[in-house]
Design goal:
This protein has about 425 residues and is α/β, with parallel strands linked by helices. The protein contains 14 helices and 16 strands. A hairpin with a 2-residue loop joins β13 and β14. Bound molecules: ligand KE4. The site of ligand KE4 has 19 residues, from α4.
Length: about 425
């Protein structure tokens, strides 16, 4: 039995499913999850000492790579002065100022400890600000596990949602309307019928939780136009895309000013820090100023703030995103070229935006949740495990995006493409 297998068996004694977050259990791809013991730059090592090029990067946070010296130094220096105070600290002022400077749509920002907290709080704030209850989200988008967001499309397109998880009251799910991503007509129909009841629309402005799916220009414009017209709050959930797809996030690529933005992952540099922010008029409704309650013992934790500051300061360096985007694009282009040389049913395709990419077991990249669901999942699972054997760690699900860090170099990309070519030959 390998060390990974022994640890997974032991983990299942006292941790449900042996993991502290379901996607880590390899349920989607099968096999034994790898227990990592060390990360450095673009690489991780598992409990059996095997080295991998890491394209998950803790699901996005590690845009600088593992154990970046500047981040480690900032966190250890900060820890010498204490871990947490439950009182304001200077670092929180510094990172709030920095985030509001980097992202023009942020008039004010509130720090929290996870993306789930950020989106849950933003939705409550939007409901408190508008006095309305209904929420629009899109099928295939994931915004964390707050009750209002664990909802799947209702029976009829325009009707209320149904819980997608046990334990979510039907009454809560009923206020969430789930629409098809990139479907402008559906959006127009809902606003025409229920616009005055919609508190907020929350969207992954570039989807990454149904694998990478890009929005159409029309869809981007319609979301901003319709929320504006009907007085609904437009929430850009940039927990994954924030400072991952570009220096001004997806909203910068879209030229859109959302009313609220949720951030996470990269902004914490690998420690538990997330945030939500936006228009001052809306943010001023938050306790202790206003009637919308929101709180957190470890919100703005000094160590997490130190890791976030070090990460944000590094990715602001001139040329950072140009280099990261070019390297990620080289990976996507290479995977597509390798993937297209096979008969249609064996083809893979890929695309990238900034430092995130999608690889699909389908001849073309998907533009909707339905198209993603049509990709060949069993082939993806075979591809995933074969690449794992080659020392390449992709996201263990056909429905997750991948991430390149500043630490990945051209040799890593070339090796990955060489391995993909060899794997596809074996699979053919
Ligand atoms: P967390 O609560 O996991 O920090 O963030 C929730 C969240 C919110 N919004 C978006 C767009 C997200 O992608 C996420 C979390 N993403 C998943 C992976 N795609 C986290 C991995 C996991 O669940 O273990």
């Amino acid at each position: 039995m390998s060390r990974n297998e022994a640890l997974f068996a032991a983990a299942q004694q006292h941790i449900p499913g042996g993991v502290n977050s379901p996607v880590r259990a390899f349920g989607s791809v099968g096999g034994t999850p790898r227990f990592f013991t060390r990360g450095e730059g673009a690489y991780v090592w598992d409990a059996d000492g095997k080295k991998y090029i890491d394209y998950v990067g803790s699901w996005g946070p590690l845009i600088l790579g593992h154990a970046h010296p500047a981040v480690i130094e900032a966190v250890t220096r900060t820890a010498q002065n204490g871990m947490s105070f439950g009182a304001p600290t200077e670092g929180e002022v510094e990172i709030a100022d920095l985030l509001c400077d980097m992202l023009p749509s942020l008039g004010q920002v509130r720090l929290v400890s996870s993306g789930t907290e950020a989106t849950m709080s933003a939705i409550r704030l939007a409901r408190g600000y508008t006095g309305r209850d209904k929420l629009i989200k899109f099928e295939g988008c994931y915004h964390g596990h707050a009750d209002s967001l664990l909802v799947k499309a209702g029976s009829g397109l325009l009707t209320f949602g149904n819980p997608s998880s046990a334990g979510v009251p039907a009454a809560v799910a009923a206020d969430t309307i789930v629409l098809p991503y990139n479907d402008v007509a559906a959006l127009e129909a809902v606003f025409a019928e229920q616009g005055s009841q919609i508190a907020a629309l929350i969207v992954e402005p570039i989807a990454g939780n149904m694998n990478l799916v890009q929005p159409s220009k029309e869809f981007v414009a319609a979301m901003r136009k319709l929320t504006q017209e009907h007085g609904a709050v437009l929430i850009y959930d940039e927990v994954m895309t924030g400072f991952r797809v570009g220096l001004q996030c997806a909203q910068g690529l879209h030229g859109i000013t959302p009313d609220l933005t949720c951030l996470g992952k990269v902004v914490g540099g690998g420690l538990p820090l997330a945030a939500f922010g936006g228009k001052r008029e809306i943010m001023s409704k938050l306790a202790p100023l206003g009637p919308v309650y929101q709180a957190g013992t470890l919100s703005g934790n000094p160590l997490a703030v130190a890791a976030g500051l070090a990460t944000l300061q590094a990715l602001r360096e001139p040329g950072f995103f140009a280099a990261l985007s070019a390297r990620t694009q080289a990976l996507a282009t290479g995977l597509t070229q390798i993937g297209q040389q096979w008969p249609t049913e064996l083809q893979i395709s890929a695309q990238s935006v900034g430092g995130m990419f999608g690889v699909y077991c389908s001849p073309t990249v998907p533009h909707s949740y339905q198209e993603v669901m049509n990709s060949n999942r069993s082939r993806f699972n075979a591809f995933f495990h074969a690449m794992l054997n080659e020392g390449v760690y992709l996201a263990p699900s056909a429905f997750e995006a991948g991430f390149v860090s500043a630490a990945h170099d051209d040799d890593d990309i070339q090796y990955t493409l060489f391995a993909a070519n060899r794997v596809l030959q074996q699979m053919a």
